[in-house]
Amino acid sequence: MKVLVVGGGGREHALCWTLAASPLCHKLYCAPGNAGIAEEAECIAIAAEDIDGLVAFVQKEAVDYVVVGPEGPLVLGLVDRLAAVGVKAFGPSAAAAQLEGSKGFTKDLCAKYGIPTAAYARFTDAAAAKAYVHERGAPIVVKADGLAAGKGVTVAMTKDEALAAIDEAMAGGAFGAAGSELVIEAFLEGEEASFFVLVDGETALPLVTAQDHKRAFDGDQGPNTGGMGAYSPAPAMTAALIEETMARIIRPTVAAMKAEGMPYKGVLYAGLMLTKDGPELIEYNVRFGDPECQVILMRLMSDLLPALIASTDGVLASFDLRWYQAAALTVVMAAKGYPGPYEKGSVIRGLELAGGNSDDVKVFHAGTRPGAEGEILANGGRVLNVTAMAPTIKEAQALAYAAVDKIDWPQGFCRRDIGWRAIARG
User: Fold this and answer.
1) Under 8 Å between Cβ of 144 and 152
2) 108 within some domain
3) Would you tell me how many other CB atoms lie within 10 Å of the CB of residue 391?
């Protein structure tokens, strides 16, 4: 098969690395890709959200199957456009992608079908939103309704923080059109976990568990980011919790989407809060998490491509995946200043030393580009995902940081405590 992966981050590098190993894949493209992905696939200079350009490329090259990495092109309807020209793709339709594209849509679906989530209200008027905050008090959570590149959520510990977040989104336009409507919801207490399933419209097949670290600095301090590291498995997600999540959250959502006339296909990523009353849904994403995808795919023993196709074709009920028992952990190396302003273009050295000759260490590129002399240049906020697999999370952590220490990139930084919760559990 000729396969196209859409996107250019660490998640897409992990997808390309995994798909390139499939005996079914004889030609792999990635649009737009990055310097690391170029080792696995032919990179095509088409932006992930250039829907017309992607459709034209797929038709011109007679691509058989498209795997969509990021949420943007899914919300814009890339899968629908490809279906219209007879090309199969992995990912939800634009209608089903509202599960991530509109937080209000998801909250309303949960309310209608009795899916556990925090109490909430929706607002298009700043004064009404502020009145709700005054009435409910803090802590409280303020969310931009639309896609905001992972930046549209404020967990406000004081009323003043919540009011400032409302102004920032609605008056300040911090998130553009995505912040013109807000969801304000109750603060949930507990431990966060990420839960992933493949869905084919009716059947949901759980993947291995993973957990990420959102805060920029050690000890879960500093601003929220797109994710500074992740590990798998997540010890917090016991077998009993997995079954409870499937029974109370995932299967009812899949049934609800079918009942609403927008059956969900693709990977469904539930952000969960493990509360004293059981798991509750924080939000849905309609694509693999980044960097959770990197640790999940490190542990995958089966061929990924048939699993993705089974999701598209509606035959997951007869499908199974095999996994390595080992643990995986990834450390994100980011440009100094991230998630605030940062500089691009610095040279990264020592990558070949970090990856070494070990199958247990892989450096996925998240934000890189090749330089004129063949050097690797930083080209984003999150730049590298240094990923390792070992018998335990503690051993995987040691292996990952040993690889990080071989990378010569003074303009970068990383957290030094990825996996601390799991290791503290013993």
Assistant:
1) yes
2) no
3) 10
> If residue 106 lies in a helix (H) or strand (E), which one and from where to where?
helix 103-113
Helix, strand or coil for residue 396? helix
pLDDT tens profile 304-357: 999 999 999 999 999 999 999 999 999 999 999 999 999 999 999 999 999 876
Instruction: Report the 3 state secondary structure along 166-206.
Output: HHHHHHCCCCHHHHCCEEEEECCCCEEEEEEEEEECCCEEE
Whether 142 and 154 have beta carbons less than 8 Å apart is answered as yes
Q: Which of 318, 343, 363 is the last residue of a domain?
A: 318
Q: Are residues 197 and 313 in the same domain?
A: yes
CATH at 7: 3.40.50.20
User: Residue 31 belongs to what H/E stretch?
Assistant: strand 27-32
Domain containing 12 equals: 2-93
Q: What is the CATH number of the domain that holds 146?
A: 3.30.1490.20
pTM: 0.95
Burial class (CB in 10 A: 0-12, 13-18, 19+), 164: middle
Chain-centre distance for alpha carbon 92: 15
Query: 179: alpha, beta or left, given left = phi > 0 and alpha = psi -120 to 50?
Result: alpha
- The count of structural domains within the chain is 4
DSSP string, 329-389: EEEEEEETTTTS------EEB-HHHHHTT-TTEEEEESSEEE-TTS-EEE-SSEEEEEEEE
Residues 292 and 359 in one domain: no
Task: State pLDDT tens for residues 72-103.
Answer: 999 999 999 999 999 999 999 999 999 999 99
Question: Where residue 179 falls among pLDDT bands split at 50, 70, 90?
Answer: confident
**DSSP codes joined into one string, 63-102:** --EEEE-SHHHHHTTHHHHHHHTT-EEES--TTTTHHHH-
